[in-house]
Amino acid sequence: MLKSNVNLNHNTILVTGAAGFIGSNLVKRLYADMQGIAVIGLDNMNDYYDVHLKEYRLAQLVQYPNFVFVKGNIADKQLIEEVFTEYKPQVVVNLAAQAGVRYSIIAPDAYIESNLIGFFNILEACRNHPVEHLVYASSSSVYGSNKKVPYSTDDKVDNPVSLYAATKKSNELLAHAYSKLYSIPSTGLRFFTVYGPAGRPDMAYFGFTNKLRRGETIQIFNYGKCKRDFTYVDDIVEGVVRVMQHAPEKVNGEDGLPIPPYAVYNIGNNSPENLMDFVDILQQELIYAGLLPENYDFESHKELVPMQPGDVPVTYADTSALERDFGFKPSTSLREGLRKFAQWYKAFYIDNAEG
């Protein structure tokens, strides 16, 4: 296991995308575990999905001492420069990005602005205001049409099948260049299908729940012959916090030249689930939570359809490097994670409305 070389206690940490699904959970975890920290949370609060959900997450964060919220876009270079100049973060976690494979076909401009220009601005700020560690979100989408499973960070990933995937691979390339040129310690994290309470409504489990509750038909892509490495959000956050505390070392190679302080890891469950099994467990947990009646006619509310453009049939993470270096492997079962989601959904959408 790698030894910690970044002490987060009494540090200032910048988290972009702080009102997002992973970002908000990360901020809560940092305040629970670390002492004397100040977190600068940046988010543009866009309406890609229900802003009320982002406001709900943010409301939980503003209660913490020394939490500062900055509403803005990472594509705004002047704003990023001002944030780094004023707050001088020692650790930066860049989670702000335009997410979603299918939406990248509809609105490509949003991906270029946030995922490329925005990330470039973060790198430039880390260059001009040296940080101890830059951690940033990549995605399992970078594996594209790779046939070999499980996906390893040693695999060649030059075949993206969506613009979203291409922007995330570009982030890794840009980070490598900046690590090499300016010795910026950076670690990219390829997340695999993150789910959980207060998640993104554009994700399948959330959309399925909304439609089943309304008595609508859900579409199951690739005729149900998909496998996904579903990863519970707490497992993702655990991995991020561990990685934050070890920046890649600045060392020289055999030729005497500096080796880029750069690393990439998968964070996934290392246990892909068949989409039909996933939908079946979700249905059971929605019934268990009282969100669907026990006699719900599930068969009449599902439709098997072809694969969507940009999607892949399987995602499957090789997490051996994460286990080796950080002693951690995600372990939350799909049933446990979906049960927590269903309980949250009932409390947020049903109980609150009735109250």
Automatic annotation (TrEMBL):
The stretch of residues making up the signal peptide is none
Q: Which InterPro entries match?
A: Epimerase_deHydtase, NAD(P)-bd_dom_sf
**Any idea where the NAD-dependent epimerase/dehydratase domain is?**
13-254
Q: Which SUPFAM superfamilies match?
A: NAD(P)-binding Rossmann-fold domains (SSF51735)
| Keywords from the named record | NAD
Q: State the Gene3D superfamilies in the record.
A: NAD(P)-binding Rossmann-like Domain (3.40.50.720), UDP-galactose 4-epimerase, domain 1 (3.90.25.10)
What Pfam families does the record tag this protein with? Answer: Epimerase
Kindly give the PANTHER family that the UniProt entry links to this protein: EPIMERASE-RELATED
Name of the protein described by the UniProt record: NAD-dependent epimerase/dehydratase family protein
